[in-house]
Amino acid sequence: MKYSLLAIAFAFLVSCSSGPEKDFSLINEKQITDYIKANKLEATKCESGLYYAIDEAGEGVKPTSASTVQVAYKGYYLDGEVFDESSERGISFPLKGVIKGWTEGITYFKEGGKGTLLVPAHLGYGNYDTRGIPGGSVLIFDIHLISVN
Hints:
The protein is α+β, with helices and mostly antiparallel strands. It has a single domain (2-148), classed as Roll (Chitinase A, domain 3). Helices cover 28% and strands 28% of the residues. Strands 1, 2, 3, 4, 5, 6 and 7 form a seven-stranded antiparallel sheet that branches. The radius of gyration is 18 Å and the shape is globular. The model is unreliable at 1-22 (pLDDT under 50). Keywords: Isomerase, Rotamase. Residues 66-149 form the PPIase FKBP-type domain.
């Protein structure tokens, strides 16, 4: 009896610990698909849950997840509120040092390419408030991949 109660308690804790992640994933998926429809975007969904739309293909090389890139960007929420933005010259950074949505998403662009990344929370800052970004937030980034270094 003692062991069965422990097993039930363990099963309950394990099943509950993954609940919020699943809930935000489903919520984010609907938020992103609604946004795409409302804004008439032609976006591609990745296996990870990331969506991207390429407006200008670019003609240069494609980065890998190990590349250092220079990117000009604007980051905003679904309601259009901007939370971060670079200058037109962009910033340079290694793709391994940023959120998962960027590490994956930037690799779909070629140098000179422009487009949009729609990043669900699990590929952004997660389900908890981080650096002023509310937990569970879908993040949208307008991207211009200036160069691959």
